[in-house]
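With this grant's support, we have settled on a layout for protein records. A representative record follows, to show the layout.
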Amino acid sequence: MLVSVDGPTSMSLPKFIAGMIFALAIVVGWSSFDAASFGTIIMRAVICAVIIQVGYFLLVYAMIARGRPMSADKARQADRGIRVAEGEKLTASRGSLR
C-alpha cells in the first residue's frame, strides 16, 4: 500500500544524511567485496554522493516549485498569527500596523 506524504517534512535533512551515509556504505562495501582498488572505491563513493546530492536538490526544487505563491498580506497574517477570512483585506480595525 502506497502512502502519500505531503509537506515540508517529507524529506528532512537528518533523513537525507542518514540515507546518504547508508547508500555510501553500501557502495563502499560493494566495491570492497568486488576487490576494487582504493582509488576506485573513492571514485565510486564520490560519484554516488554527487548523484544523491543532485537528486536531493531536484526534490527540494520540485517541492518549492509545486507550492503556491503566497501574497504579502497572507505572509504578514501568518507572521502575526491573525486569521482573516478569504478575500477580506487587512484594515486598521482588523490588525493593520497603521
